Amino acid sequence: MKIWKEAGATLLTVVGLAMALSVTQGWNWPLLGDARAGIIALGIVGLSACSISGSAAMAFSMKDPFVIAAVATGIVLLALGVIGLFVNTLPYLVAMMGATVVIWLVATTRHLLEGNTNTRHAATA
């Protein structure tokens, strides 16, 4: 596991969630005036975090339960985002925030467990 990439992905996730919170809590941040703007901001920052976090992984297998959970959550996240762009209401943004936290937890847990497994294998070899 590449800890700096994981830390960068975590920081981006926090930034994206803060941007979405600014919409739901009425903080009046510039360019974040409605649910659609929050969905776009969270989508862009979340996709950036995903690309950084994905490169922190050691291996990729569709048989891995963490990968299956992340892909399933990603599909739900994408569907919520597309529908939310058309509907422009806060419940879709809030649901996207929840899905973003879930996908971050799944990816980070996988990377942490993967790093511990590789450390154990290297020590026994």
Give an account of the 3D structure.
Helices cover 80% and strands 0% of the residues. Helix 1 packs antiparallel against helix 2, helix 2 (35-54) packs antiparallel against helix 3 and helix 3 packs antiparallel against helix 4 (90-124). By secondary structure, it is an all-alpha fold.
List keywords for this structure.
125 residues, mainly alpha, 4 helices
- Give me the number of helical elements: 4
Tell me the major beta sheet. none
Q: Which spans have pLDDT < 50 for at least 5 consecutive residues? A: 120-125
User: What is the N-to-C order of secondary-structure elements (H for helix, E for strand)?
Assistant: HHHH
Strand content: under 5%
Helix and strand content put the structural class at mainly alpha
Q: Label the overall shape.
A: globular
Distance between the termini: 18 Å
User: Quick check: average pLDDT?
Assistant: 88
Query: Which bin fits the share of residues in helices?
Result: over 70%
For the secondary structure, the number of strands is 0
Rg result: 16 Å
Fold topology:
Layout: H1 3-24, H2 35-54, H3 65-87, H4 90-124
Helix pairs in contact: 1-2, 1-4, 2-3, 2-4, 3-4
